[in-house]
């Protein structure tokens, strides 16, 4: 009760009412494919005393996925770190640096072996024994081999960690690979370039609610977020009729423009929930802004789905 009251007080100081917070919990419940009866339980999960320790490793990446996570709302990043998870190592956010930072990493692993969640952002260079990426005198490859197998679970956030992403695109001189392909561990993948932070929050909340990670598809993605194609959820979608594309003007958004399939939209072959949850506090998403989906949550999208402005 004390933790819940303190959490609500911090939200109020930010100008967020309990009503707004419960709206977010309702959105999260819908995103996770849960009934409305779970909304109070999700609210309780945010103030649970159970705080899983998390180690966040950053490898060959642009920090875009970390920046996307920093844009979480209700909870904001400080609530996410201080109340929901215990983020014990993340180079961008942590105060220590150098040897002190590395000590935090190794202390967390030693104390919580088999109990901590490892989040990985970025692909792993494997060419020439991984020499193309190093931290503290160790290659990304060495760090991943040392840390990931000791974790309760490894969550890959972003397409680079999940499938190799842009660093693994041809000709791939560094031999960049996904975490799974580089070191052989099973991973939960939250792809996207960047992914929507609500899918990461939903994954953590699923663990807090049910004591396990969410169900996955054949590519290691949470089904609650990646169970449908972009096209199937898109309000601007078209359908085939007598060999031609026909736009269904069944929403205000559809009336603002036609389906972008013919200008290269990869929505029919891309699995993600972008149309449902959108970005920037639910403001918009690429297709709503007039740009075709480029399929960034799919494996090898940079090679297989380009050129991006040519129809499938």
From TrEMBL:
Protein location: Periplasm
PROSITE patterns documented for this protein: TAT
Keyword Iron attached: yes
Binding site for [4Fe-4S] cluster 2: 231, 234, 259, 265
InterPro entries from the UniProt entry: Cytochrome-c3_hydrogenase_C, NADH_UbQ_OxRdtase-like_20kDa, NiFe-Hase_small_C_sf, NiFe_Hase_small_N_sf, NiFe_hydrogenase_ssu, TAT_signal, TAT_signal_bac_arc
UniProt-listed GO biological process terms: anaerobic respiration
Domain Cytochrome-c3 hydrogenase C-terminal positions: 226-309
MF terms (GO), sorted A to Z: 3 iron, 4 sulfur cluster binding; 4 iron, 4 sulfur cluster binding; electron transfer activity; ferredoxin hydrogenase activity; metal ion binding
Keyword field: 3Fe-4S, 4Fe-4S, Iron, Iron-sulfur, Metal-binding, Oxidoreductase, Periplasm, Signal
Gene Ontology cellular component annotations, sorted alphabetically: [Ni-Fe] hydrogenase complex; ferredoxin hydrogenase complex; membrane; periplasmic space
Cofactors named for this entry: [3Fe-4S] cluster; [4Fe-4S] cluster
Binding site for [4Fe-4S] cluster 1: 62, 65, 160, 193
Residues that hold [3Fe-4S] cluster according to the record: 274, 293, 296
Pfam families given in the database record: NiFe_hyd_SSU_C, Oxidored_q6
Every NADH:ubiquinone oxidoreductase-like 20kDa subunit domain range: 62-206
Family indicated by similarity: Belongs to the [NiFe]/[NiFeSe] hydrogenase small subunit family.
Subunit details: Heterodimer of a large and a small subunit.
Protein name from the UniProt record: Periplasmic [NiFe] hydrogenase small subunit 1
Species whose genome carries this gene: Desulforhabdus amnigena
Gene that encodes the chain: hynB1
